[in-house]
Design brief:
alpha+beta, 4-stranded mixed sheet, 10 helices, Creatine Amidinohydrolase, Chain A, domain 1, 2 domains, 6-stranded mixed sheet
Length: 386
């Protein structure tokens, strides 16, 4: 039995995920998959990812870190001693090959691979260290190596009821953060001020970490951006401030956006805001089982194009979301994936009008009969702080 952290997912559900993975591996003639520390590994085993950092955090023999998973057997973990000591903290996660600093890491990795038997075809997680891929090829000599991430992604696309509960809570953290921050948008504040407030509120409401780098910005007559030097400059009267941020709750992400105007808006603002809302609603209504992702994207674009502003919609309608903030399928013109009930994705139309104004909105939607269901509850009405 694998018992790791309090992730909100039962051990039984993790086991069921690995069973379904085993079935897919057999269907594709794959004998085993190597999964490095990642959203895939967390999804399959509950082994929690580290909080990401700008620079690389690494250990001796760090390349070995991951799990070898084969049909009809429990995972075999290969982990550096530092990982075992400071990430597991004594938890029993099953079969672990511990690689100490003075060990022959390649030999122990090969031994773990050999324990799975004769391997002819092996899948590899997309974010695996290059050194691990090279050594896996040597250990499973003659085996074909294939990309394993699309296989796990197929399992991740349709969310269980428990997953939807966790994602709804992550969405509620974003809702609460916006409610606490919107009133602070006023002339003279900086985008960095607002970014700091958002991230403070996210943490105070229980988010483990932002689900991606918080982005607060303007576009049009004014351009200020929390992610560059202009984010330190005070914003102007009438400047529309666009929020793009998300929370993480027990491994699941939210992704959220609103626009708040600091003072009297541009004369075209309310019209553009209404068009954007119509676009979001069209995308939500089109998100029914059987619809192609590209068709849903086209439905979302429709109201903006009909208003003669098609060139200002420079994004896609959205993307899948779950244990990663961006997952497949993408709700975009190139993606022809048929949607299924329980798939979750963002509905995030925007209007970026050069030298004039910009507006955006973003909520998480779950595909359902009769149209998508929002997981967010924060109001979608225009907010102007006069």
């Amino acid at each position: 039995m694998t018992v790791t952290t309090d992730t909100g997912i039962s051990e039984q559900e993790y086991a069921e995920r690995r069973t379904r993975l085993g079935e897919k591996l057999r269907e594709q003639g794959i004998d085993a998959i190597f999964v490095p520390p990642s959203s895939d590994l967390e999804y399959l085993t509950g082994l929690e990812r580290d909080i990401p950092s700008f620079g690389n955090v690494h250990y001796a023999h760090g390349w070995v870190t991951g799990a070898l998973i084969a049909p009809d057997r429990e995972p075999v973990y290969v982990l550096p001693r530092m990982f075992v000591t400071f990430h597991l903290w004594g938890r029993d996660i099953g079969e672990v090959v511990t690689v100490r600093e003075t060990d022959d890491g390649r030999a122990l990795f090969r031994k773990a691979v050999d324990s799975l038997g004769d391997l002819k075809r092996v899948a590899v997680g997309a974010r695996t260290w290059g050194e691990a891929v090279i050594e896996l090829g040597k250990a499973a000599e003659g085996a074909e190596l294939v990309n394993g991430s699309p296989i796990v992604n197929e399992l991740r696309r349709i969310k269980s009821e428990r997953e939807l509960e966790l994602m709804t809570h992550a969405a509620s953290i974003a809702d609460g953060t916006m409610a606490a921050t919107a009133g602070k948008v006023e002339p003279g504040v900086t985008m960095v001020d607002l970014q700091e407030e958002v991230e403070h509120q996210l943490r105070a409401l229980g988010s483990r970490v932002p689900s991606f780098p918080t982005h607060i910005f303007s576009y049009g007559q004014h351009r200020h951006d929390s992610q560059n030097a202009s984010g330190l400059e005070p914003i102007a009267e009438g400047e529309p401030v666009m929020f793009d941020f998300g929370a993480v709750w027990q491994g699941y992400c939210s992704d959220f956006g609103r626009t708040v105007v600091a003072g009297e808006p541009h004369p075209e603002y309310e019209r553009c805001y209404a068009i954007m809302l119509a676009a979001q609603e069209a995308g939500r209504a089109a998100a029914v089982p059987g619809a192609l992702a590209s068709e849903v994207n086209a439905a979302c674009r429709g109201p903006i194009e009909e208003a003669g502003l098609g060139e200002t919609f420079r994004h896609r309608m959205g993307h899948g979301i779950g244990v990663d903030v961006h997952e497949w399928p993408f709700i975009s013109e190139e993606d022809t994936t048929p949607l299924e009930a329980g798939m979750t994705f963002t509905d995030e139309p925007s209007i970026l009008w050069d030298d004039t104004l910009a507006v955006r909105i973003e909520d998480v939607v779950v595909c359902a009969e009769g149209g998508g269901r929002y997981l967010n509850e924060h109001p979608r009405t225009s907010v102007v702080n006069r």
